[in-house]
Design goal:
This protein is α/β, with parallel strands linked by helices and about 375 residues long. It has twelve helices and 17 strands. Helix 2 links the parallel strand 2 and strand 3.
Length: about 375
């Protein structure tokens, strides 16, 4: 099925890969992106995809520009968003505006210019802590860590102080919105699934887990953890790992994510659904830091385990992926070791400003690190 697709935020890390995937499938692509400096730098890089995709530069909240962007469009992939759990806790207006008000503006415009389907990027952050079980096998959806004292475990405990055991997190788990970023992503997906059907528009939301791959914004200290580690390593610094490094995440390659968006745009099983997009495998953050250092030939730069907690951070969250496979036949295919090697090769050719210490000082100054 060939369509004209508007991709908001299509100049970003994930967006560019989605553009490539859409073009490869024979679609016409229009991109609307504001080129935020924190992500793109002062001089955005030039990419070959702009030879084949139409690019409009500006904010989704610009009503005139958005109207132009939606002209003669068949479907929308909505990626435009401010990204960063920690930063969202003190740039509150920026995140609510860039995420929720921008999504509201999109759907306001779609009332007059309806499309066949909208697929919106949500986030695993809306879960807060992932799903846990007690030692008796009981499900725990609302695990919390509270304030940790010296000598206590970083892991959530049950009401009797006993350990809980992390298990894959399914879509039915109740949200636990522990950061402004998580709150805004949840609003984005609910706006999509509430407003679109009222106007005869098909809708879906994809909850992305930790996306990695070539093309990440290495100088953005609030981006994905692998990009942050890569920037540190490239500049001869040890990766900074919070807590004890044993927190578990699900890392999914950007090529798999792009493929998921195009499948969700076409497959009838996506309509009205929220779907996890992850690899289905969990890895510790410490192992990730060590593995990337090895892939970049910087084995001597062992991760710096800070022992500190950041406000809004969660302990364990990794994807249950059965629903995406069942509903839209999506399964992640990219090999993680090969993906790390690919990322390392790309990073070796880049320049990156390491701003992690600056970001850490911002959080500390506001009492958001304990």
């Amino acid at each position: 099925m060939s369509e004209t697709i508007l991709i908001t935020g299509g100049a970003g890390f994930i967006g560019r890969q989605v553009v490539r995937e859409a073009l490869q499938r024979g679609n016409r692509v229009r991109v609307l992106d504001s080129f935020v400096e924190q992500v793109h730098g002062r001089t955005p890089a030039k990419h070959d995809i702009w030879n084949d995709a139409e690019l409009l530069v500006g904010d989704v909240r610009d009503a005139g520009l958005l109207s132009r962007a939606l002209a003669r469009v068949d479907s929308v992939i909505h990626l435009a968003a401010e990204v960063g759990v920690g930063q969202s806790m003190y740039e509150i207006e920026r995140y609510v505006g860039g995420n929720d008000l921008a999504t509201a503006a999109l759907f306001q415009a779609l009332i007059d210019r309806p499309v066949r389907r909208v697929v919106t990027a949500s986030s695993m952050s809306i879960y807060g802590e992932g799903l846990y079980r007690t030692e008796n096998g009981d499900v725990v959806e609302d695990a919390e860590r509270g304030m940790r004292r010296a000598g206590q475990s970083y892991d959530p405990l049950d009401r009797n102080g006993r350990p809980l055991f992390a298990v894959p997190t399914p879509e039915w788990k109740r949200p636990a919105l522990t950061s402004v970023y998580a709150l805004t992503k949840y609003v984005q997906e609910r706006l999509t699934l509430t407003v679109a059907p009222a106007y005869g528009i098909e809708a879906a939301a994809l909850r992305l887990f930790n996306v990695y791959g070539p093309g990440q914004a290495l100088s953005n200290p609030y981006t994905g953890v692998l990009a942050i580690f890569a920037s540190r390593l490239l500049n001869g610094e040890r990766p900074m790992v919070f807590e004890d490094g044993q927190q578990r995440r699900d890392f999914v390659h950007v090529k798999d994510v792009a493929r998921a968006f195009l499948i969700a745009l076409e497959h009838p099983g996506a309509v009205g659904n929220v779907l996890n997009i992850g690899s289905g495998h969990s890895r510790t953050v410490e192992d990730i830091a060590i593995g990337l250092a090895q892939a970049m030939d910087r084995e001597h730069l062992l991760p710096e385990i800070t022992g500190k907690l950041r406000a809004g951070d969660i302990r364990h969250c990794f994807a249950a992926v059965g629903k995406a496979e069942q509903e839209i036949a999506f399964v992640a295919k990219e090999d993680f070791s090969a993906g790390l090697a690919e990322l390392a090769e790309w990073v070796a050719e880049q320049d990156a400003d390491d701003r992690v210490d600056q970001a850490h000082r911002e959080l500390e100054a506001r009492g958001l690190v304990a």
